[in-house]
Batch of 2 targets.
Target 1
Amino acid sequence: MGATPASLSNTVNLHITAGSGAPGMAAGELLVDAHTASAEHLHVGSTVPVKFAQTGSTTMTVGGIFQSNPLLGHYLSGDGFFLSHFKNPLPIAVLLSRARGAHGIDTALNNALAPYANVSVKTRAQFEASQQANVNQLLGLVYVLLALAILIALIGIVNTLMLSVFERTHEIGLLRAVGMKRHQVRAMVRSEAVIVALFGGVLGIVRGTLVGVALAYALRNSGVSTISVPVASVIGFVVLSAALGLAAASWPARRAANLDVLAAIATE
């Protein structure tokens, strides 16, 4: 990616970790993001072979290393060097810094770019909001899939408990005959449902957290620099698992409690 060295530091914060910022973009020099530098074993002063489609091969020297930033790509060179090798560059984004005291910039830019339907003007806050909206849209899809998985799990719990009650009809009849009350039978079936639901919920949360951490690590070069585990949400999902398990046990527990004692004892 090409950039104007003189104005780059006024537009974005490079977070230089080695070497220099704009001075490191002199003719024949470039800046490299930290992840690429680590993967390619590059440091300040390293020589990097570069091949351009229009002008052929050349070599450049690493003038600095900056913290990985998805807005800036992996390599940064001065715009003079960039334009000398790309005759007809296609800009995908233009970063502007508002001068102090300037007014009406947004309106002027929107009016100037009105004929171009595929070009939009966004402030930093608007850009952040659009990126968050993309993430929230993905999370919405994940929650829909989660709801579907929970529904299937509840059907599985109900089916399992109904089969369990059917297979233990004789045992339940014996327990009722020796003094077990109806509410105790219901509590027994409900406790089994809660245990199954909690086991599945905790196992799913642990596995999901591990997968999330792995994905965050894999996306660290795309702007995901912080891994955060929402403890309150995790606790909430555990409680929700127990509550849903309890709800799923209502029908099987009622059926077990309403069994005729003599008929249940006579069941083989």
Target 2
Amino acid sequence: QLYLRSRYKYHPKSDPLIPCQEAGLDFNPGDVLRVVSKDDASWWQAIKNVSGYKAGLIPSIKLQTRNKASVKQPHPLLLKEAILVCSVMTGKQLVVSQFIPHQNGVGNTHSPTYRPIVLVGPQGVGRNELKDRLIDSNPAHYGVPVPHTSRSKQIGEMDGKDYHFVTREYMESGIRDNLFLEYGEYKGNLYGTSLSAVHTVIQNHQVCVLTPYPQALSVLRCKEMKPYIVFIQPPTLDQLDTMGIPGDVAPSVRPKLTIEHELSNLVNRGERMEAAYGRLFDARIVNDNVDAAFAQLKEISFFLENDLQWLPSEWMD
């Protein structure tokens, strides 16, 4: 059987191409679709959320590909209503993912390996606050990769604990070979998080918690990592107005959210990030209250370790 997981909204009543709008299947990001018929080349029949009983029409992969190739400029429908179903855009290639159920540790007689939890969001939304709370809740279970740096070790620092202290040449070579998830330079020294450091946390049977820039998702989102990507979303401006300024926004960002311009800038950056990377997100948490947001994050972590999850079939051996 063919299962697909949607990363886009699709509303058949907004699709002028569908032969019968009433027969279309409405779905949202995260919905799992079970394809029950592929008899028609352009329109498949699918059931939403696997256990549903009513089948509806969805655009086939062939139709999606043809529409994408024929539209030189982005069509409003593709951006807002998203005809592209259950797919990931990589450059100009349309990569279609089938999904199969998976559970951490199932079929593994050794200690289970856990999927990394990746928190992304606009700077200032409170990702690091949530990461720190999660790790502090169980330091033996949650871990972070030890970063690399080219600077000299300072008094009291331990190699392999505070940083991996290496030469600049070593880091530059690793950067050229795409061995770093992300990196940067500060006061003449290089800093970065290596893929091997992430793997070390996973191999130690800990849940690796990461807060990278969204550009790193193209490297992280692979079968070796199997990350679960959570978008930490700022409240809307209307919600912020209701809450007051600074209201219940995460304490770590309160100093930045003291004027309307900063609030608007945070929300706009979140919207741009959602538009650019939203197809990659597995879950979303609106951080309008850090305690409530942390509770949601704990629920997600529990789900990842105890319930069946849907993974792209190409991620499974």
